[in-house]
């Protein structure tokens, strides 16, 4: 079943730009599981509460297939740069998956870009007074490249946990933050406030 437009929208409510991933369905789905696992594991590693992480797939118009994902985190009182690194981690984990499985090509790596993750980081940090430049280092801030470097180190350090979560996510479609914590040995901090 095709997801609702809200599930396929970015943080501003605009539809996320679809990107063709030149892989078989099973390989693309597992790649998306690695993407979402990257977000979820770094969120836990940076003391953010993870609500859920999931892989969403459906039959597209014309009989093809489509796959995306979603990881919902609560990031209150989180270091701004760690939040940004968590946003960058999905793409990095997905590209690492391509490398490890012998699937990397420039075209496939470019398809992992997830511009909506970068834009979420830029907007969330701006709302807190932090300057995150897309292609430059703003005065008193950092560039997206710097944040990606920070995330790359953490993704490499947490690769075992990311891999474990990705395979479980690929098998089950949806994992709660508590399930991810149990799989990784990381702590899912309590949700702050009302119902998740």
The rough form would be described as globular
Biggest sheet details: 3 strands, antiparallel
| Weakly predicted, low-confidence segments | none
- Count of runs of 4 or more consecutive helical residues: 7
Coarse structural class: alpha+beta
Radius of gyration based on Cα positions: 16 Å
Strand content: 5-15%
Average pLDDT reading = 91
> SSE order in H/E notation?
HEEHHHEEHHEH
Helix fraction, binned, reads 40-55%
- Distance between the amino and carboxyl termini: 25 Å
Keywords:
about 200 residues; alpha+beta; three-stranded antiparallel β-sheet; two-stranded parallel sheet; 7 helices
Notes on the protein architecture:
With 196 residues, the protein is α+β, with helices and mostly antiparallel strands. Helix content is 49%, strand content 14%. The strands form 2 sheets. It has a 3-stranded antiparallel β-sheet. A hairpin with a 5-residue loop joins strand 1 and strand 2.
């Amino acid at each position: 079943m095709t997801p609702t437009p809200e599930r396929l929208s970015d943080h501003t409510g605009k539809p996320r730009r679809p990107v063709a991933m030149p892989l078989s369905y099973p390989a693309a789905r597992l790649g998306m599981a690695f993407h979402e696992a990257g977000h979820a594991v770094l969120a836990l590693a940076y003391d953010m509460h993870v609500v859920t992480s999931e892989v969403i797939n459906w039959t597209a118009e014309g009989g093809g297939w489509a796959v995306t994902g979603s990881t919902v985190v609560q990031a209150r009182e989180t270091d701004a740069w760690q939040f940004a690194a968590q946003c960058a981690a999905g793409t990095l984990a997905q590209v690492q998956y391509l490398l490890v499985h012998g699937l990397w090509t420039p075209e496939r790596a470019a398809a992992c870009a997830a511009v909506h993750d970068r834009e979420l980081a830029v907007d969330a940090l701006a709302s807190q007074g932090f300057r995150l430049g897309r292609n430059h280092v703003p005065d008193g801030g950092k560039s997206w490249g710097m944040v990606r470097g920070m995330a790359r180190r953490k993704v490499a350090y947490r690769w075992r946990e990311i891999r474990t979560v990705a395979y479980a996510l690929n098998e089950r479609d949806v994992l709660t933050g508590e399930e991810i914590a149990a799989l990784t040995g990381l702590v899912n901090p309590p949700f702050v406030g009302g119902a998740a």
